[in-house]
Amino acid sequence: MRHRHLLTRRGLLFALTAVGLLGWLGIAKADDDPLPSWNNGSHKQAIIDFVKRVTFEGGPDYVAPPARIATFDNDGTLWVEQPAYTQLVFALDRVKALAPQHPEWKTTQPFQAVLEGDAKALEAAGEKGLVEIVETTHAGMTTDQFDKIVADWLTTAQHPRFKRIYTDLVYQPMLELLAYLRANDFKTFIVSGGGQEFMRVFADKTYGVPPEQVIGSSGATKYQMVDENPVLMKLPKVEFIDDGPGKPVGIQKFIGRRPILAFGNSDGDQQMLQWTAAGEGARFMGLVHHTDAEREYAYDRDSEVGRLDKALDEAVAKGWIVVDMKNDWKTIFPAEKTTP
Amino acid sequence: MRHRHLLTRRGLLFALTAVGLLGWLGIAKADDDPLPSWNNGSHKQAIIDFVKRVTFEGGPDYVAPPARIATFDNDGTLWVEQPAYTQLVFALDRVKALAPQHPEWKTTQPFQAVLEGDAKALEAAGEKGLVEIVETTHAGMTTDQFDKIVADWLTTAQHPRFKRIYTDLVYQPMLELLAYLRANDFKTFIVSGGGQEFMRVFADKTYGVPPEQVIGSSGATKYQMVDENPVLMKLPKVEFIDDGPGKPVGIQKFIGRRPILAFGNSDGDQQMLQWTAAGEGARFMGLVHHTDAEREYAYDRDSEVGRLDKALDEAVAKGWIVVDMKNDWKTIFPAEKTTP
Fold first, then answer.
1. Which of B213, B159, B207, B210 is nearest to B191 (CA)?
2. Rounded to whole angstroms, how far apart are CA atoms B321 and B318?
3. Could you tell me the pTM of the whole model?
């Protein structure tokens, strides 16, 4: 009995100490570095200072949790967009996969160009051609069927340079930022020119952003009964372009309130950042500047994909934070590979 | 010292007992009746049983919290829609308020009909006329300006029969249901034919549903710079009708996953309930049947406003819950008046 008593007392003391120590370490660690993949410097500090200011109850910049809305662009802000937008790669792969059912594509542009790998003819088809490819490959099936097609593609398609699946090519520092904001009661949204339905397939698992917080470009759908079972058929019609001035429109439509923090990387994000900046109270506007040709890519004013020109000028003029990928980020991609 | 010791021990014991007792009472009370304004009976029991089934971890019907999506119609489901939709009353009031700036309305239909109170001419203008009234009164200002106009109107406009402001004429039993679901980690959405921007003005305060969880019909907006300040201008163009087959479309667009519980009251909710029912796992489909002419209104198959005909047949055939307002609800409206 005495032995057991001692064990209990000592066991209890030990347990309490361990719990206390772990708790203390946990808190201390979180306090020390909520963004371990960011190099120390003014940009990292600006993020942390902003979060501390808006979460400090009683402070002049305090924002109540429900109003802590944060919006993030996806392509080039959360994952790689070079040498081509991932969703475009998907669409081109779909043309190839569907070609056997469409013999007429062998002699019809822009499909012929895709099948023959004729970059010049594809370029000649222009934006109209691309829209046709996207509309054709993203329609004619139910929303559930589309989800499955995207999910299957994402498990196998590999990036040509990094030889990893696309959901591995997300930016580790941004994953940490998303998690840090949520730990501080922010609601994190994706507001992207990319397809809403496309992103929703992986956003929850990859970014921790649930479908109802993913806003993107979208096509029309139609409610139909198929064998007494209701489905939503995807129609070959782009309905909303969530890019440039469409981003504040999308934010108002889907969220109904203004973000207090917004992050982008291109001119397509300029209006989202303007809209965020124009609100009252503390604000954070950030751009990811791709400056790291070695570990990722270096591009801005002259790039066809993710051009950063006017937004860069405005950011510099207005003191928005321009993250320098090469200098600000300790690592680019998550170390762990999902691929075999 | 001995005294103090006793006090401490006894105090501690008392405190623990009190806390335990309060906790036990609290739990017991919540268990006893999470829906105090609902009369006991099979409908109330069906709601409670459903919530218990989907929240019982390890049970066959368990649903993880993020997938606990619940969607509610607004007009006639959460607040009064008779004798006319509140937003229509608002639009007609706006025509009167704006008339001095539009002398041409004195001789232009459908505005002339509104100004002269000519119900026959207004009816003759039909749906086209109503759309014109809504588009005219809901556009030509920024989203912020519109919010303020609606907010001001809601504090003064009174229901013709009940002589209370409209946000007082919400259904107390449904407020309890919303709160009960949220207490069980459901995410509650409004999915209504009513205007999204209109409802968002009061939905958070009145229903506890934040703007980003309010889905409704909406008009186009345009991002513009006014004196170097970005605004979203409301355009006179209806863009999305969130009614009938538009409800599943809106649910997919805004939420991106299927509800496991949906509540409506009219044929405009039929497709939302079908869409909800067609998902896998435990489901709850509910209709509010207005059967109480004395305390509220009694209407269904023959009503122009909130007609309940086909959806009622389907509900009966498929065993969806049809709430009988007269018999199921102990009280209709919250007791406390917001009005002076």
1. B213
2. 9
3. 0.90
